Amino acid sequence: MKMANSLRGEVLNLYKNLLYLGRDYPKGADYFNKRLKNVFLKNKDVKDPEKIRELIARGEFVMKELEALYFLRKYRAMKQRYYSDTKDTN
């Protein structure tokens, strides 16, 4: 039972982190939040600890992908802002 509780905490933490990251999702936070909720609800009855760990790992992968997406978007915006003049000088 203790293991299930620790996994539950991990799942809740993952959900909160993904909700936070979803605020800046390109298609909008509402779109992201609905999809996120559906995915978590679809898997709410999973009891096997190995399967739960697998799903947590997939969620962590999605988090890393979102962070990379946002980082790249910020990088491109900064690059455009600061280097747009250099194209004209070539």
From TrEMBL:
Pfam families: Complex1_LYR. Residues 10-63 form the Complex 1 LYR protein domain. Belongs to the complex I LYR family. This is Complex 1 LYR protein domain-containing protein. The lineage of its organism: Eukaryota, Metazoa, Chordata, Craniata, Vertebrata.
